[in-house]
Amino acid sequence: MANTPKAPADPFDARLVRKLADILTETGLSEIEVEHGELKIRVAKQLTAAAAPVHYAPAPAPAATAPASAAAPAAAAAPAAPVRAAGDEVKSPMVGTIYLQPNPGSPSFVKVGDTVEAGQTLFIVEAMKTMNPIPAPRAGKIVEILVEDAQPVEFGEPLAIIE
Fold first, then answer.
1. CA-CA distance, 18 to 29, in Å (whole number)?
2. Which domain covers residue 34, as residue numbers?
3. Burial state string for 89-123 with b = 16 or more CB within 10 A and e = fewer than 16
4. Assigned domain for 57 exists
5. pLDDT, tens digit, for every residue of 5-16?
6. Confidence (pTM)
7. SS3 of 102, please?
């Protein structure tokens, strides 16, 4: 048998990265870095700040080219946008499945009318088998919950309104 040189061992350890990600979730940290010899691993999660709602001025109405009687049926056929309560939207920071309670059969974290503290858990979003608590961005009153339990949610999707 000929002596063949061994390829250098891959210093990347996926299990270590997963453990570090779990530590971030458990502790509420946003970033962790580990150094061992020449190996350096940094794991960070993207934090999204709850921004104040942006208000746009209404677009100017287009000039009418048809008689008003022809425009009225078209306007009646257009579906009305859902009316939302005034306040700050709590948006999903990730894609996943939202849960309104910590365990099946448990009471919901919050319901409409509840007063919440800043940082209080409102929901959980499950993403890649990890449960991610969604905290209240500020203290206030829950005036509307815009999602159903076990519903898929998208990044940036409004979940609730805090007044």
1. 15
2. 14-44
3. bbbbbbebebbbeeeeeeeebbeeebebeeeeebb
4. no
5. 555 555 566 777
6. 0.50
7. coil
